[in-house]
Description:
26% helix, globular, signal, glycosyltransferase, transmembrane helix, transmembrane
Amino acid sequence: MMWVVCVALVFIILSPSLHSFPPAEAIRSSSHLFTAHGGGASSSSSSVFPDRFSFRRAPVFRNAAECASTDHRRAGVCDPSLVHVAITLDVEYLRGSIAAVHSILQHSLCPESVFFHFLVSETNLESLVRSTFPQLKFKVYYFDPEKVRNLISTSVRQALEQPLNYARNYLADLLEPCVRRVIYLDSDLVVVDDIAKLWTTSLGARTIGAPEYCHANFTKYFTAGFWSDRRFSGTFGGRRPCYFNTGVMVIDLARWRRVGYTQRIERWMEIQKSDRIYELGSLPPFLLVFAGHVAPIEHRWNQHGLGGDNVRGSCRDLHPGPVSLLHWSGSGKPWLRLDSKQACPLDALWAPYDLYGHTH
């Protein structure tokens, strides 16, 4: 597979989109560590997965001189200067989640100002995160799978049926009321730009912001029965719905709470159980509630689809334009393809952020 790595490295060197922004030169590292802020889950996991998971300790990333002067080592979750990021921690995707966190810290001008909210359905992953990122500010939130198990319908791919995929629907309930905005990120991506730029995106009067893809065939996300029944398809009346990927979203949690969007999503999931109006897991309920009411974000913040399609899988190229976030949505995950020596060329762009206990 040497040719794969070579092709990807040539791509990195020559691609103007990946040179359209500089790396965060002002990131500061040191060997001085401080205790991370955690909570919620048991911290007895150091030997729970000794064979399956062994992550190298990440470097310590410090704020640049121009960052806010707040002492972030003592700041709590309600500090208004923090950037809030929510990611799930799942055993199957843990390697991807760790790489995502690593990438965010590496490219942040103010990495000590980022607070991570980890959603889990297992209570034994906190100490693993703490040992990998001793300087990290984070909190762990337990999401009970039973909360959605009876709402989940079968999908085109079994991985899309996992209860933790639906935890994003409950962020407004899980996170502290003082957290009024959050960036939600999937576990199969890396950020190659300063996350603070995404954080400061204006949502206007919208509840969520995401890159939209209005050229996509929106009808394919729902069944023929959905479109032929005005009780259902009428929900898009007066809207110009566009596809958006729910793996990268900026969410106004305060507005979400006021309107009660969790209940609206749950209602569509209940309809799906009885009427089978879609095939793609947790995405369609979000489209039903928000499509046509999304604050648009630059496409650079979700170069998605790098995992190939959800049925056959395939190697994909980047979309035209600059890149701030690479997303391996689809059935193929870069860590699995790299380990199996069947990597796609762009998987080499994920590898530098991998902290798994061996080198490529």
